[in-house]
Structure formats: C-alpha cells, structure tokens
Design brief:
Layout lengths: L9 H20 L12 H10 E4 L4 E4 L1 E7 L3 E2 L2 E2 L6 H7 L5 E4 L12 H5 L2 H10 L2 E4 L6 H15 L6 E5 L7 H7 L3 E2 L14 E6 L4 H8 L4 E4 L6 H11 L6 H14 L25 E6 L4 E5 L9 H8 L7 E3 L4 E3 L4 E6 L2 E5 L2 E3 L4 E21 L3 H15 L6 E9 L13 E10 L2 H15 L7 E2 L9 E12 L5 E5 L2 E5 L28 E5 L5 E7 L2 E7 L3 H10 L2 H8 L8 E7 L4 E7 L19 H6 L2 E5 H4 L5
Parallel strand pairs: 3-6, 6-7, 7-11, 8-11
Antiparallel strand pairs: 1-2, 3-12, 4-5, 8-24, 9-23, 10-19, 12-13, 13-17, 14-15, 15-18, 16-17, 19-21, 19-22, 19-23, 20-21, 24-25, 26-31, 27-28, 28-30, 29-30
Organism: Fusarium oxysporum f. sp. cubense (strain race 1) (Panama disease fungus)
Pfam families: AtuA, AtuA_ferredoxin
Protein name: DUF1446 domain protein
C-alpha cells in the first residue's frame, strides 16, 4: 500500500521542473534554453528572482511557486451553468498556468460528465500538450475509468500521443453499504439525531469524499490529465501543490494553506467579481478573467487574475470566496484541517492579493460520505397575481386548497409561497406582477395530482387577474433525489490510482486526531448606540458585504466590512439574536444558528442549520443553493452609525 505520506518525489523532481522552466522560458521570454549556461545570463537571472532559483546540489533549476488556474465545470443535467463551454479554451490561452483544475461535482451531480470531452477540443488539447499544462478534475463522477478511457480515445482521434491519462477510484462504496449499516458505524455529518435509517431504501449512490493522495500518485506516475470521482473540490489544487513542492502529510501548515488556495479558486470567477455584493464597483464585470493561485514552497499563496482586463481580484472579492460555503473557522478536508481564525488577506499589486495566517491541524479519522437515494415525489407550479390586494389574493388561493384538501396528511410538504412584491404605481404589467409558488411532496403520486385538479377547478372562480404558469408539465409528479451526508472511516476505503498499466494503492492517512468541533462565539460586547454616536436607518448593505451558500440542508452567510471601526460595530451589533431578527419571517425556531468571527478580514459568519430542508435536490425553497440569503440580509434596514453612512455605499 502506497499512501500520500510515503511517496518519494525525488526520482522525477529534476526532470519535471526542468521541463516546466523550458516551457515557461519559451512562452514568456522567447529565447532558447541552455541548462548548463542559463545561470550566467542576465535574462535568466531576472527570471530566477521572480520564479525560482538554481540549486547547486541538484544542479537543476527549482521553481519556488506553482501556478494553478481553476475553471468551474459546474454541470447539472448536462447543462453548464458555471463558467460555460469556453472556460477551458480561455484558461489555456490567457497567460501562464502550470495546472488547470476543475470541479464538476456539486451535491446534486452523480454520473461522469461528458462536458469535459466537449470542452477539450483538438486545438485546446494541442496547446495543453505544447505548454506542458497538467489538468486535474473530478468529472469522472461514478465512472472515472470510463471518462479516462473516453479521454484517451479523444486524444487518439486528435493524433496526440504525448498526454498520459490517469484516474483515481475508490470513492464509490455502495457495495459496502449493507455491511456499514449492520455495524452501525455511519453517523450523520452534523446531526447526531439522524441515523442511517432515514435513508430511503433505493440507494442510487454512496460516495466518500477523497483527498489528494490519489492525485499526487497519478502525477508521480507521469500523468498529464488526472480524472477523479468524488474528490473534494480543493483537493485537486492541493494535489498539484503537494506534488510540485514535495510536501509530505506532515507538512500541515503548507497543506492547509493550499487547501484555502484551492477554496479561493474552486468556483472560478466567483473570485474575480462573480456573485460579488460590490459588483457595481467593477467597471467591466462580465466574462471575467479566471483566478490563478500562485502557491509558494512554504504554503503562502497569492491570487491574481489571468491576463485580460475584465473582472477584478481584490481583498473583498477574495474575502467573499473565503467565507463562501464554510462551516466554521476549521475547514475540514480529507488531508488536513485548515484553521482560518487568523486568516489575513492583503493587496499585493494590481488585481493581486496575498493570503496568509492559516494554521494546519491533523485531520479526523473520517471523511464525508454522500448518500443519494430515490426520494418520494414532488410537483410545483406558479400562480401569478397583479396589482392591488396581493395579500387578499394570496389568502383566497390558500383558502381554495384548504377547502378542497382540508386534510394534508398525505403530504410531507405542502407550501404556497409569495415571491416578489408589485411596484407602486407600476410602469408596466410585468412590474405589477408577483408569483405564488405551489410546491408539494408526497410518498404517492395521487395526492400530487389532486393539486392540478384543485387549481383547474378554481381558475374561473379565482381572484381577479389570476393566471398560471402554462407549462403544466411541472404539475406532474416526479421522483426526486434525497441527499444525506454521513461520515465514513478512511480505513474503510480502497483508493487506487491507475495510469496505463500501473496501479498504485493509496493508504489511509498515517496520523489522525479527534475533531472536537467548531469554535463558536457570540458577541462579547453588546451593541450600544452611544458608543458610535448618532445613527441613521439604512439598508445593512449600505456598508456591509455578504456572501452566502449551501452545504446539504445548511446555509452559511459571511458578513464583512472594510474598516476597523465598522468591524467593531458589526461584531457587537450582529449577535445571534440580531441575526434571527434580520431573517424575519424566514426564521424558524427549529433552525440551529452558529456564529464565529474572522477578525483579520473583519467578518462575522453564521451557519443556519436546517434552513434548506434536505438540500438542493429536494428543498422546497426556490433558492435551493442559498445564493441569495446574503443579499436578502443586506436589504434589511438597521440603525447604522451616521458616520459610516457618510462614507457612501459600497
């Protein structure tokens, strides 16, 4: 068994780094490469100072940093809604990168994704081969071997024989589920009251989240393209950096930093102006450049934008990504825990920031296990109301269903929710319209079919101006995927890397430690308006940024400001009770709220456990990914110190 902690990187170090320098030299400096004489040339001396140094012992040029770019192959049902089909083509053309990493697997995605094959056209493949770029991604889904074989066939059709493909497998544990259930060892990721009995009987897949060990092994075997199944999104970046710098599993600080570097770029343009609450401040904020992580040998890293003018990298855009989808100050990964309590982000040039202050801790003996099963049935439709008396029109629609279906015990979920409010003195009918969304789930189809019957019967006797979503297919009962996250011990997994006819078995982590939980705090100094002078009632978002996201049934929201005095106000004002109040009608006492602070980036962070009620594949919420909770909070009116408001809106 060969584990990450036991890999010997020395055998290929010189060849690997020399090749990288040769390619960079040709593309960036446009002169020849003479290994014996380059140290004496003035041009290479300048290059030496920027990127690396000559090692007299190894008699070879050693790069001090690795550059990793990330395009987010975020695919759902075969349709790209992340970076688009041109992402890979752009990344290989827009400046230097050593590695390209991509994340295809959200919690709703299962099978292997052919979108990579579409994006990897002949010209792009030729550029990758010519520049010596390595590609690592998790598009293999449930069949990494199948996607690897398809990739090899594609390369053969292109006449490219220089790119070696490897795949990592072992995340699929569905064959072990019966045994794991019998032993009772599977516990829920964050709710000890939920047992495996809650999983629906027809299990579609059960996949453990893998780390970087298999990726490092693939690179050590000489792979140029590494295809994984369900590995953690940031692990692709970690594997690249660990292989490049020769880190071992004991390099906790370096690994933790690379984990956060991966987290910063794993969502592509989310780090360069996408989904950014300060988007108005970026002049050209579309078709943004992709983020690159420049990772140094000691783990310190820099994030900057590729060589094109659109988008932006700043302390705020990177803070937005750092606080996105995290669950606490301890960021858990299958190879390390990153403690970001004292993380620091500072500008270090135009469209460039430096990130430091990350501490590495030993990982626990378990990793996340995603279990997807066939759930029950669900349907939905929308009714639209226009103009006046919206409250009464909503009540009339609800009364019609209460009259016709007084007993709703056949439904696990039955909701009629209003979305939007008509504009006062509206300038168009569209701006006078709001949506009443009807959403229901049941273990049987027939109760769901009754919804259509009631709605059709009510239509002609309904409120004035009532009209429907005319796509009646949405009212037909359809099965949904039920998702539940558990924990599985590493030593239960059988992970291996396959590259050609060579196979490497990946051992469990050599050392682990018990995880004692997240470090949570409420405000230690209650807010007092007398400390900050006169106040003005304004939207929270006048001076406060936000980014929100999802993890299973939970949502997270990071709130941060730009100035130290604003942070002292924010951390004292934004208590758990204040946060509950700002959620208003969306707050439910069954939710568990967790709060912590990241003082060096002036952030107060909350996790709302349970608000997504099953996660994106089955939640009754329209925003099943919790992307907009932060913007909802920024729209809430609060009493803000007047002196802050005089600084203008962010």
């Amino acid at each position: 068994m060969l584990g990450f902690g036991h890999l010997d990187f020395r055998g290929t170090f010189n060849k690997r780094l020399t090749t990288a320098v040769l390619l960079i030299t040709i593309s960036q400096f446009n002169f020849g490469f003479d290994q014996q004489g380059f140290a004496a040339t003035q041009a290479m001396t300048a290059f030496d100072k920027q990127f690396g140094h000559w090692d007299e012992v190894k008699q070879d040029y050693v790069l001090d940093t690795v550059w990793v770019s990330f395009f987010n192959g975020y695919i759902y049902l075969g349709q790209a809604f992340g970076d688009g089909p041109e992402a890979l083509r752009r990344v290989v053309r827009e400046g230097r990168v050593d590695f390209i990493t991509a994340d295809y697997l959200a919690e709703a995605n299962i099978g292997f994704d052919k979108e990579f094959l579409k994006a990897f056209d002949k010209e792009t493949a030729q550029i990758v081969a010519e520049k010596g770029i390595k590609i690592i991604h998790n598009g293999g889904g449930l069949n990494p071997q199948g996607l690897a074989q398809a990739t090899e066939e594609l390369l053969v059709s292109y006449g490219i024989s220089s790119l070696k493909v490897a795949y990592v497998e072992g995340d699929d544990v569905i064959g072990m589920i019966d045994n794991l259930k019998q032993t009772g060892e599977l516990v829920h990721l964050d709710n000890p009251d939920v047992t495996f009995a809650a999983v629906q009987p027809e299990i579609l897949c059960a996949n453990a989240y893998l780390g970087m060990g298999g990726i490092v092994a693939a690179l050590e075997l000489g792979a140029d393209i590494v295809i994984c199944g369900r590995c953690c999104d940031a692990s692709t970046v970690m594997g690249a950096a660990a292989w490049w710098h020769g880190w071992k599993s004991s390099n906790l600080g370096e690994l933790a930093s690379s984990l956060i570097a991966g987290h910063c770029i794993e969502c592509g343009c989310y780090a360069t102006g996408g989904n950014f609450s300060g988007f108005k401040s970026i002049p050209e904020n579309q078709n943004q450049g992709f983020p690159i992580a420049e990772i140094e040998a000691d783990g310190k890293f820099h994030i900057f934008i590729q060589d094109q003018p659109k988008g932006q990298v700043s302390c705020d855009t990177i803070t937005a990504q750092v606080v996105y989808e995290i669950q606490g100050p301890f960021y858990l990964n299958p190879d390390v825990i990153a403690d970001i309590t004292n993380i620091t982000i500072r500008d270090s040039g135009a469209n460039r920031v430096t990130v430091s202050g990350i501490r590495g801790l030993l990982l626990p003996p378990t990793t996340k296990l995603a279990v997807c099963s066939i759930g029950d049935y669900q349907c939905e439709t929308s009714v639209f109301a226009v103009g006046l008396d919206i409250k009464e029109k909503l009540a009339a629609l609800k009364n019609a269903f209460d009259y016709n279906i007084p007993d709703k015990s056949d439904y696990q979920t039955f909701r009629i929710d209003q979305y939007g409010v008509p504009q006062e003195n509206p300038s168009s009918q569209a701006l006078a319209t709001c949506q009443f969304r009807i959403f229901a789930q049941s273990s049987q189809k027939e109760p769901l079919r009754r919804i259509k019957d009631v709605l059709m019967g009510y239509w002609l006797g309904g409120f004035p101006g009532m009209h429907l979503n005319m796509d009646f297919r949405t009212m037909e009962p359809k099965p949904y995927v039920a998702y539940l996250p558990f924990l599985i011990k590493y030593d239960r997994l059988r992970v291996r890397t396959v590259c050609g006819d060579r196979v490497v078995n990946i051992a469990s982590p050599p050392e682990t430690a018990r995880f004692s939980g997240q470090k949570l705090t409420d405000a230690d100094q209650p807010y007092g308006s007398d400390l900050y002078g006169p106040t003005k009632k304004v939207c929270l978002g006048t001076r406060v940024h936000a980014r929100s996201g999802d993890k299973g049934s939970n949502a997270n929201v990071g709130l941060w400001v730009q100035d130290d005095d604003e942070y002292e106000w924010l951390r004292s004002f934004m208590t758990v009770e204040t946060f509950k109040a700002l959620l208003r009608d969306d707050y439910d006492p069954k939710y568990i709220l967790e709060r912590f602070e990241l003082p060096n980036i002036r952030c107060v962070h909350f996790r709302i456990k349970g608000i997504l009620d099953g996660g994106v594949s089955s939640t009754p919420r329209l925003d099943g990914l919790a992307k907009s909770i932060g913007e909802f909070l920024r729209a809430q009116y609060v009493n803000m110190p007047l002196r802050f408001t005089l600084r203008g809106s962010i």
